[in-house]
Amino acid sequence: MQQIVTMKDVSLSFGKERVLQNIDMSVQEGEIFGLLGPSGAGKTTLVKIIAGILEANKGDVFVQNKQVPSLQLLRSIGYMAQSDALYHELSAKENLEFFATLYGMRKKKRKKAIKHVAEVVNLTNHLDKEVRHFSGGMKRRLSLAAAIMHTPKMLILDEPTVGIDPLLRQSIWEEFYKLKEQGVTIIVTTHVMDEAEKCDRLALLRNGSVIACDTPEEIKVAKKVSTIEEAFLAYGGEA
Ligand SMILES: Nc1ncnc2c1ncn2[C@@H]1O[C@H](COP(=O)(O)OP(=O)(O)OP(=O)(O)O)[C@@H](O)[C@H]1O
């Protein structure tokens, strides 16, 4: 398998605060890669660097063999931020049209894509509703639809299921598996242990450092424990 993301000795500080330190990590093409860590561990900062939104102070980041940040990469990456970047006064459809325009999609393609992604996230019957009348879960689903509508090769999802009920969370994960089957690489941040178990590989992040990186099974086996939570503690992380 080929590497789609390679990070070499990446560090980032905000002022005096060192938020990421000496990260060496790679993501393989076609896998679901999880970043697990407590609040403030640096997950959002790390995915923003991969997405080209933030630039590291030190080290190199390559996505699809191109050095990040690169304008060329923007169209092959789908990014779903932690807080929904939606226009509340617009309808769901108008929001999707706005994102399609940003991605440079033409009218005919745009129409087809909106229909498709609305079906995927089960919002077809709510497309004409203004987003301010949406529930939290509906907004997350709409954000996900916006992130996948230009069929990116790689999807970066920052806590995509936060505040979402277990049933809907399950259906969103089924969608992730479907995208994976289509060859999409997915990078997902979470602090939910059972979600971490669903990933092909995981990086455990603590205080800006990767303390372990492997399959969930290997991470547990290495510490002779039965849950990721126990493994996290055994590696010296805080739960
Ligand atoms: N723009 C910024 N300026 C200054 N400090 C920042 C900035 N962005 C993040 N930080 C700091 O970097 C650290 C890591 O933040 P980050 O958002 O990456 O963590 P996280 O693991 O995603 O947390 P959470 O799970 O709560 O979202 C925190 O201490 C945070 O205060």
TrEMBL record:
Cross-referenced InterPro entries: AAA+_ATPase, ABC_transporter-like_ATP-bd, ABC_transporter-like_CS, P-loop_NTPase
Key words, A-Z: ATP-binding, Nucleotide-binding
One MF annotation (Gene Ontology) recorded for this entry: ATP binding
Domain (ABC transporter): residue spans on this chain: 5-232
PANTHER family the record matches: ABC TRANSPORTER G FAMILY MEMBER 20 ISOFORM X1 (PTHR43038:SF3), ATP-BINDING CASSETTE, SUB-FAMILY H, MEMBER 1 (PTHR43038)
Entry protein name: ABC transporter ATP-binding protein
Species of provenance: Gracilibacillus caseinilyticus
